[in-house]
Write a structure and sequence with these properties.
The structure holds two protein chains of two kinds.
Chain A lengths: L1 E6 L4 E6 L7 H24 L5 H22 L3 E6 L3 E7 L5 E6 L4 E5 L9 E6 L2 E5 L5 H15 L3 H5 L1
Antiparallel strand pairs in A: 1-2, 2-3, 3-4, 4-5, 6-7, 7-8
Chain B lengths: L18 H7 L3 H29 L10 H36 L7 H20 L26 H28 L12 H32 L13 H35 L6 H14 L15 H13 L1 H15 L8 H24 L1 H7 L3 H31 L5 H27 L14 H30 L36
Helix pairs in contact in B: 2-3, 2-4, 2-15, 3-4, 3-5, 3-7, 3-13, 4-5, 5-6, 6-7, 6-8, 7-10, 7-11, 7-13, 8-10, 10-11, 11-13, 11-14, 13-14, 14-15
The chains are: A alpha+beta, B mainly alpha.
């Protein structure tokens, strides 16, 4: 998912890129809570008649389910923010807060969209300058990546003043 | 801008690994789906060969082909192979192939775990089948492995228990993957009540799996500790209760029956509207009926053990609860028939199998209702009537739906059309022979022929001969099925993207065969 906002006063444009997900963490918690309740009810009932070995297996399975949900949700928490202002292009990547930040000089930054060598695999969108490179929108769809590349190219294009010089 | 799809796997800029390594290391849902389906076909043929041995022995009274101990090993391992190696992996294969495509996701949520959950299976079944060659032979106490009989097994006992654990781990990982994929990776706009019925039935099946597998794991572990570690969970001499094993086994076992049939309901609910060229009648009622069946499956387990000695109140409760299941199941049958009502029907092979499913599964359902009547069950219990009942449900139910699904989606998977003429021959030979095989078993059971016994009284001879002839023909006709599948994989007339004129759903918007990664662009869900 790509969200764009623009601050005309400071001449800043920001793109926020996030992967898609179809359930909230609250939804997952409710789901896991109901499954835990079922496990406890079942496991305790069997334990009360002496068959206690079901409870540890139920516990193991619940932990596996929780961990898998956690892993899947974590992957959809990745976020990239591309900020373009007067003279710089900043790319911040991370989960809940910026963990990696790359900054490029706007006039030197290049946007590259490398097509995959095989149709099965997605293209690769990068911003680079002076030997440094950062991949953006890896989790986006092909259509979105192409659209984003075109927008970034338009935005990061050399400033009119510089072209005039 | 449109909405993106999360790619949950690292995709490198190259194709799949070459040769055999592609299949060993693959994390692609389509590859893993294919592996599951081919594995299920192999197990189906192995389990089928065991059924042939059973039917050969039962062709005539007396002992002719195998000794009684081996006969009992065949009935037991046939069931374990068909249930855990045939039907369940086949449905998991269908889930792998279809769920991401149907919900508009790029792959399963946890691709590496997906690979692992498949690759456990060949080891589990090699271990299970290897017990047949060990001292004391393979498991012979029936697939329910009731103690104390099952504890008399030879050296293979711990291997059997371990193989069941491995199958359980594989099933649980498959189920977790299905739940996480459906909950977290649906395309924008794909709300729960817009999901195809196949996805819904699999979601509910996955919940049944994760709820019941710990019970099976606990039960077989307690058998193991009773045999080797001196515990007495099920040993009456030590203060335990063997009947408690039956209770916990069937607390797992009855939902397991629905694990084997709910995805079949989903398959048929996809196929019938396509060939009736009408939307599915009563979509919401189908969803609620599936959920009701799943709920009821937890409160009917003791109908498998009416004769064990229960208070009358218990007998009545389990009898009425069991009969209640007929209501949501009836809703489903009504909806399938209503979908076909006044439809522009055509009868391609998948539709033939789907219609046969509706008719023959209903016969199995009716005999199930007869078995649900507790006082009558005392007569039917452990007879061939029960064998006929569950084979109508599982062969002409679950397996027929898998065959219908194969014919329906094979052109999408391979990009090639199957041979329609051969498909129809396969259908008619199978359908006639399967009825010749199982229908007489109703009469044998009503007349009192017990199951799991290699010999029988002479008055049962004719019906057994008829049944065995049906069995041999049905077995041989499945070789034709394997041939049709292989032929289609190798080539044939090219399939269009939509394949079937009346098909609806996201999978038909992809090319045939689909690209390696399904939806790198999230599709528009209307």
């Amino acid at each position: 998912m790509v969200a764009t906002d623009c601050d005309i006063e400071s001449n800043t444009r920001r793109y926020v890129l996030r992967p898609n997900r179809s359930i909230s963490w609250r939804g997952i918690t409710l789901l896991l809570g109901s499954i835990l309740a079922l496990y406890l009810m079942m496991g305790m009932a069997f334990a009360m008649v002496g068959l206690w070995l079901i409870l540890p297996f139920a516990g193991l399975e619940f932990m596996a389910l929780w961990y898998c949900f956690y892993l899947s949700f974590r992957q959809t928490e990745h976020c990239q923010v591309i900020t373009i202002d007067g003279d710089s292009v900043k790319v911040e990547s991370g989960r809940r807060r910026p963990e990696i930040t790359e900054q490029f000089q706007r006039s030197w930054a290049q946007v590259r969209l490398a097509k995959s060598t095989h149709r099965w695999y997605p293209s690769r969108l990068t911003i680079r300058s002076h030997g440094r490179e950062v991949e953006v929108g890896k989790f986006l769809s092909e259509e979105e990546r192409i659209e984003l590349a075109a927008e970034l190219r338009r935005e990061i294009a050399p400033l009119p003043a510089l072209v005039a010089i | 801008m449109s909405t993106a799809t999360a790619t949950h796997d690292e995709h490198h800029d190259h194709g799949p690994a070459p040769g055999l390594m592609r299949w060993i290391t693959t994390t692609n849902h389509k590859d893993i789906g294919t592996l599951y389906l081919l594995f299920a076909l192999l197990m189906f043929l192995i389990g089928g060969a065991m059924a042939m041995i059973i039917r050969a022995e039962l062709f005539m009274p007396g002992l002719q082909v195998v000794d009684p101990m081996f006969f009992n090993q065949m009935t037991t391992v046939h069931a374990l192979v068909m249930i855990f190696g045939g039907v369940m992996p086949a449905f998991t294969g269908l889930a792998n192939w279809l769920i991401p495509i149907m919900i508009g996701g790029p792959d399963m949520a946890l691709p590496r775990m997906n690979n692992w959950s498949f690759w456990i299976l060949p080891f589990a079944f090699t271990m299970l089948l290897s017990t047949l060659f060990m001292s004391g032979g393979g498991p012979a106490a029936g697939w329910t492995i009731y103690p104390p009989l099952s504890l008399q097994m030879g050296d293979g006992f711990p291997f059997m228990i371990f193989s069941i654990h491995m199958m359980g781990v594989s099933s649980v990982m498959g189920a977790i993957n299905v739940i996480v994929t459906i909950m977290n990776m649906r395309a924008p706009g794909m709300t729960l009540m817009k999901m195809p019925l196949f996805v819904w039935t699999w979601l509910i099946t996955a919940y049944l799996l994760i709820a019941t597998i710990p019970v099976l794991a606990g039960a077989v572990t307690m058998l193991l500790t009773d045999k080797f570690f001196g515990t007495s969970f099920f040993n009456a001499a030590g203060g335990g209760d063997p009947v408690m094993y039956q209770h916990i086994f069937w607390f797992f076992g009855h939902p397991e029956v629905y694990i084997l049939i709910l995805p079949a309901f989903g398959v048929v609910s996809q196929i019938i509207p396509t060939f009736a060229r009408k939307p599915l009648f009563g979509y919401s009622s189908m969803v609620y009926a599936t959920a009701s069946i799943a709920f009821l499956s937890f409160i009917v387990w003791a109908h498998h053990m009416f004769t064990v000695g229960m208070p009358v109140a218990g007998e009545l409760f389990f009898m009425y609860a069991t009969m209640l299941i007929a209501v949501p199941t009836g809703v489903k049958v009504f909806n399938w028939v209503s979908t076909m009502w006044k439809g522009s029907m055509t009868f391609e092979t998948p539709m033939l199998f789907a219609i046969a499913f509706v008719v023959l599964f209903t016969i199995g359902g009716f005999s199930g209702l007869m078995l649900a009547i507790s006082p009558v069950d005392f007569q039917y219990h452990d007879t061939y009537f029960v064998v006929a009942h569950f084979h109508y449900v599982l062969v002409t139910g679950a397996i027929y739906s898998i065959m219908a699904a194969t014919y329906y989606w094979l052109p999408k998977w391979t990009g090639n059309m199957y041979d329609e003429r051969l498909g129809k021959i396969h259908f008619w030979v199978s359908t006639i022979s399967v009825n010749v095989l199982f229908f007489p078993q109703h009469f044998l059971g009503l007349a009192g022929m017990p199951r799991r016994i290699p010999d029988y009284a002479p008055q049962f001879t004719e019906f057994n001969m008829i049944s065995s002839i049906g069995g041999f023909v049905f077995g041989l006709s499945q070789l034709l099925f394997a041939y049709i599948v292989i032929k289609t994989i190798r080539g044939g007339e090219k399939a269009t993207d939509k394949v079937w004129e009346g098909a609806e759903g996201l999978e038909w918007t992809l090319s045939s065969p689909p690209p390696y990664h399904s939806f790198t662009t999230a599709p528009e869900v209307k």
